[in-house]
Structure formats: structure tokens, C-alpha cells
Specification:
This is TF-B3 domain-containing protein. Helix content is 21%, strand content 33%. It has 239 residues and is of the alpha+beta class.
């Protein structure tokens, strides 16, 4: 894995119109954004400043596969697959360290977000990021005596929800087939549970109805609170 800079195959970038060196955004599997610098050297194109953080935050290893899609407006969507070509579901909950640990940014240094040009599109993007950050921080400050986990909604979670493996493996019964989800002051839903390998649980049948009934949107932060082995309370923090 190229940690310092990532070369972009010429066959890929030569088919992209209007893309030039400068600041671009990488939209990771979690829906979070990593600002990086796109450089052109001797006819080759590279991701540089900011790429190291993307590699570190996703714990990328040699042999893993990255799928890039150019969305326009200087933004790429990135999916991460392991060496066996299976998508790494753990990347769905990854967030940029600089967004989570804000106190780490020194007073004299500009954050990566501040380097993005102040165009109307980027201002809207900043506003969306700030709303998502605020929702995530509120979710992380939720206190409970029960096991909890925070998940950020992304497009692929509207029809089914992958629960983080570490949480599922530690707290959910291996024979789970159904879970009752309770949203305080809103109602309760019976959701089917699928197990896809050791510690991998998916909220499947009934989840779409749950998502639509509660108006879940990409960027919302959800706190899953396990109050019983077959019941979770879901606390929704809107982005």
C-alpha cells in the first residue's frame, strides 16, 4: 500500500474531463470526507497531502483493493476491499481522526478542511460536514449503563444495517434471529437479524420500514443501546 502518495493510473484519469491539480475530496465507505491534494508530476497524477491520513484511518494494508469512482466537483467515492476481494465492512464506521479528536489540532496549524476553496459548493459541503460532526459528537456524548455503539447513516444502510463487528461479537447472542428496536417516544419495530460470518450481524427484514418511519438520512448518527439480548433502544441524532 502506497502510504506517502497514491499514483492514479493514466487510463483512469485521462478519461476525466476538467480534473486538475489542487484540493479534492475522498468520500470513504463511512460517508465521511477526507480532503487530499491532487498533484501532477511529469505526466502522472498522485494523491498526496491527506492521503496518508486516509490510509491510516482505514488501516489499509498491502494487497487490499481500492475502487475509485469520480463523482465530479473534485470528489471521489472510495470503496475498500480486502485481499480476497470482499468489501471491508469495518470501514463503514471509520471517521477522520481530525474530526473526532479536534483538540489535537494545534492553534498555529490549519486543519485540512480550511484548505478547501470557498466556492458555494464547498461552503455547502462544509455545512453538511459540520452538521454531521455535530450529530456524531452528540451521539458520542450519550451516556448509558448498557452497551452502546454509534453508527453513521450512509446510503447503503437505508435498506439494511450492518452492525459493527466488535460490538456484535462482544454483546449479541450467536443465535440472534430477531431484534426489537425501540425509538423512545416514537414506537417499536421487530427486525430480522442475519448472521454473515463470525460476529457479523445485519439488521435486515423490517429495517427499511424502520428507516423510512423514522426519516433516517445519510449523515444521521444512531446510538444502538442494547438493553436486553433481543432488544435495542435506538437514539437518533439528526445531521
Amino acid at each position: 500500500m502506497e502510504r506517502e502518495a497514491k499514483g492514479i493510473p493514466p487510463a483512469f484519469w485521462k478519461n476525466i474531463n476538467g480534473l486538475s491539480s489542487g484540493n479534492v475530496s475522498l468520500l470513504g465507505p463511512s460517508g465521511s470526507i477526507w480532503p487530499v491534494n491532487l498533484a501532477i508530476k511529469e505526466g502522472h497524477m498522485y494523491f498526496e497531502n491527506g492521503w496518508q491520513e486516509f490510509v491510516r484511518d482505514h488501516s489499509l494494508k498491502c494487497g487490499e483493493i481500492l475502487l475509485f469512482r469520480y463523482d465530479g466537483n473534485s470528489r471521489f467515492t472510495v470503496l475498500v476491499f480486502d485481499a480476497s476481494a470482499c468489501e471491508r465492512k469495518d470501514c463503514h464506521s471509520v471517521r477522520p481522526c481530525r474530526e473526532v479528536v479536534k483538540s489535537k489540532t494545534s492553534k498555529g496549524a490549519k486543519s485540512a478542511r480550511q484548505t478547501v476553496p470557498s466556492s458555494p459548493d464547498h461552503r455547502k459541503q462544509h455545512a453538511r460536514i459540520k452538521e454531521r460532526d455535530n450529530a456524531f459528537e452528540e451521539a458520542c456524548s450519550f451516556n448509558s449503563n448498557h452497551p452502546t455503539v454509534v453508527v453513521i447513516m450512509r446510503e447503503s444502510y437505508k435498506k439494511r444495517m450492518w452492525l459493527p463487528r466488535r460490538f456484535s461479537k462482544a454483546y449479541l447472542p450467536k443465535n440472534s434471529t430477531e431484534m426489537r428496536l425501540v425509538v423512545p417516544k416514537a414506537g417499536e419495530w421487530s427486525i430480522g437479524v442475519l448472521q454473515c460470518g463470525p460476529g457479523r450481524f445485519i439488521l435486515s427484514s423490517g429495517w427499511l420500514k424502520f428507516s423510512e418511519s423514522n426519516g433516517l438520512k445519510v449523515g444521521d448518527s444512531l446510538v444502538f443501546e442494547l438493553v436486553h439480548e433481543t432488544e435495542m433502544h435506538v437514539h437518533i441524532f439528526r445531521a
